[in-house]
Amino acid sequence: MSRSSNILDRPLGRSGARSPEGSLVSLSAFAYVYSELVQYHQGRAASISELERRLESAGYGVGLKVLEMTAYRAKEAKRETRLMSILHFVSSSVWKSLFGKAADSLERSIDHTDEFMIIDYEPIASTFVSVPPDLGQLSADAYVSGIIAGVLDGAGFSARVTAHSVNVEEGEYTKQGGNSMPGMPPRKDKAVFLVKFSPEVLSRDAALER
Amino acid sequence: MGFLHLFIVNKSGGLILHRPLGPAAPRIGTNEWLRIGSTFHSLHAIAAEASPVKLPGNKNSSGADDGIEQIEGGGIVLKCLQTRTGIKFVLTAEPGTPDLDMVLREIYVLYSDCTLKDPFYELEMPIRCELFTNAVDNLIERVEAGGAKTR
User: Fold this and answer.
1) HEC profile for chain A?
2) pTM for this model (two decimals)
3) Which of B106, B110, B117, B142 to mutate to test the interface with A (most CBs of A within 10 A)?
4) I need a surface site. Which of A28, A114, A127, A183 has the fewest CB within 10 A?
5) What is the ipTM of this complex?
């Protein structure tokens, strides 16, 4: 295959600067493209929930492909069949290949046995986004929840994933400087990705338990 | 030594942000602010014509339109950063406040990060981005507390 002069066919990043997870993309470039994606969908959506659904379906296709690529690169001989292992796969391997670090925590909901939460204190999709008050509960990380839903669906665990912005309590998360972005104040909100599995996934997992 | 006000004027002369930066800042009504913004915009342009030294194309060394960069008066220093795209960042402060240039450039960086990458911000419209105003407040706090070091 000859090296095409078309920039879209060339591999990303300089050949010398390869990190183990792959080449790095500038956060600003992603932020601008994502900002246009949100504006594009906002012009076509009639309501906040429709905008969220459009962003989630934009991420879904990415999730399916990320699952294949991450699973291949992890060189695991067996695919994940248990709930906890697929969740660990998402919160560590998938997060590392997408964002360069593992998710900050994975929790199980106390009230509902079919709900899990993946928490990220510095979600990159919403790093520069200020949601206006008339859009209320919209989370700019809906795209990432679409990616997670794509990964889980592709692995055979159908789930509904939603993104929520939750206030960070005092002292809950301290990193040097309070923010990896230089010059920016510490983030007030963390992103909580709520994963609600379908009942058949839970019953299958319970059956495998026995 | 204190910062007084920040105001940002878009390329048509309209005010898109005004923010008091410290307790010493005088309280001015919004209409007054709009007038100050557009007056400054016009004066900035006229100053380039009135200046004894005229730069080619009226553009200064950084490619932006030439005009008022600093005004010093009894009790106030006003500094202006004009960008290539026509946005003016104007900072007023008490005389003797250090690092005004650096703060102006940092504010420009914060503007390009928090407002231009925000999908809900329309260009040239008044800035309503919470992230930007929080970041500016945070920057001023850090500069006043820590002296020259901000990064």
Assistant:
1) CCCCCCHHHCCCCCCCCCECCECCCCHHHHHHHHHHHHHHHHHHCCCHHHHHHHHHHHHHHHHHHHHHHHHHHHCCCCCCCCHHHHHHHHHHHHHHHHHCCCCCEEEECCCCCCEEEEEECCCHHHCCCCCCHHHCCCCCCHHHHHHHHHHHHHCCCCEEEEEEEEECCCCCCCCCCCCCCCCCCCCCEEEEEEEEECHHHHHHHHHHHC
2) 0.85
3) B117
4) A28
5) 0.83
